[in-house]
Amino acid sequence: MTHGEILECLRGCRLPAWAKTPKFVYYFRNMPNFEEKAQIIQLPKFLDERGNLSFLESGKHVPFEIRRTYWIYDVPGGCLRGSHAFRTEKEFIVALSGSFDVVVHDGVEEKRYSLSRSYYGLYLPPMHFRTLDNFSTNSLALVVSSADFSEED
Fold this sequence. Notes:
Order of helices and strands: HHEEEEEEEEEEE
Strand content: 25-35%
Largest sheet: 5 strands, antiparallel
Mean pLDDT: 81
Low-confidence stretches: 29-35
Shape: globular
Strand order of the largest sheet: 1-9-6-11-4
Oligomer: single chain
Number of strands: 11
Number of helices: 2
C-alpha cells in the first residue's frame, strides 16, 4: 500500500487529526504484515451457584507476557477513550462490567467489536488503532498489556 493509499484510507475513518500526519502514516507504511489480526478470545468460565469465575493467564489465554494492567471506568456518556495505536505493545481488553465498543483500524479496514461479557476479551496486536466508545453506565474495561507504560510507544 502506498503512502497516498494509506492517507486516503485514513481520511475516511473517524481518526483524530494527529493520526493523519506523515509520522503516523509512516508507522503504518513500515509495519509488519497483518497476519496477526485483532480477535475475540474466549476465556475460561466456571459456572457455580455461588457466582461464576473467569480468569486469564500470560501465554495461555493471552498471547503475550503481561507487563501492565489498568482499567477504565466512570466514563461520561458520549466520551471516547483510547484513540491511538501502539507500535510494539500488545493489548487484551475485557468488559468486566457493563458494555462498550472497541473500534479497531488495522491500516486497511475498520471493525467494531462489542464487548459485554467478562469471559470474552479482544486481543489487539501492535499497530492497530483503537478507540473505545459507547460505554454503558457503570462499565468497567480491564486492559492488560505486553509492555510497561511508555510515551514513546
